[in-house]
């Protein structure tokens, strides 16, 4: 019977297993699932397969080895899906999987190189499982918490929301550390409340025409004047500090306000409202993750200048 079937171009399931490299059990499974049904049956009821069925089994084996699921394979064999489109979709899935594995490797390398805290381990574990879209969602949720429901300048909010935080496919340990710190920061309710309060205050001062960006002309002048003194250890209540205040207080007091101790205290409170090391740290971490140019912290200089303003008001 076997010989007769073979002479007619049909193969038993055992012969087909040897020819395709698939197990008899696997061929039976594909037959039962209707993916590669037998071409015919022998008089004794044994399954028989022709050359076309063998070719289909070869294709099934290849696609399965590539990780394509049975539903997609069935659709391809039934001409319900284009093989090229299925392959392209699988390439995209593999690319995402490769990126995830590279990220996990970077996370494990970071853990191996130091002893993280329990909180950091949790954040690293989360990081290793998240896709790029899910990581960005953490930042988007932070923006929702900070800006949601507020009547703020639309351009300002749009600029903040446009910031993407994109880890590269193979992040460095420094980038992994930066992401872990950033994720903890933006999910901290206290930090969110602080940034929300700063946003509200900034909008009020913008409406009143009193807000000055740290990178304004005055901000740059203050940094240039303060940085060398602070670096040299000059105290904010020293004569040198008072000299800097005298030079900068006039331009800082807007709308013709008199240069009085009360106005200097008010100005110090205004600057303090927009000066926060954690906010600056947020942007430093984003720069590390996104591989932007690093920048020197400016908040310490502003803290020094604020202290100098207060000291000059008290000694006046």
Give a written overview of the molecule.
This protein is mainly alpha-helical and 316 residues long. It folds into 3 domains: 80 residues, Multidrug-efflux Transporter Regulator, Chain: A, Domain 2; 103 residues, no CATH class; 104 residues, no CATH class. 70% of the residues lie in helices and 2% in strands. It has 16 helices and 3 strands. Helix 10 packs across helix 15, helix 12 runs antiparallel to helix 13 and helix 12 crosses helix 16. The radius of gyration is 34 Å and the shape is rod-shaped. The N and C termini lie far apart (114 Å). The N terminus is likely disordered.
Task: Give a concise summary.
The protein is mainly alpha-helical.
Please, how many helices?
16
Radius of gyration, in Å, reads 34 Å
Helix/strand/pairing category: mainly alpha
How many beta-strand segments? Answer: 3
Helix content: 55-70%
Largest sheet, in brief, is: 3 strands, antiparallel
Q: Order of strands side by side in the largest beta sheet?
A: 1-3-2
The averaged pLDDT comes out at: 83
The rounded distance between the terminal residues' Cα atoms is 114 Å
- Count of discrete structural domains: 3
Strand content: under 5%
Shape assignment: rod-shaped
Regions with little confidence, pLDDT below 50 for 5+ residues: 1-7
Which sequence of SSEs, written as H and E, runs from N to C? HEHHEEHHHHHHHHHHHHH
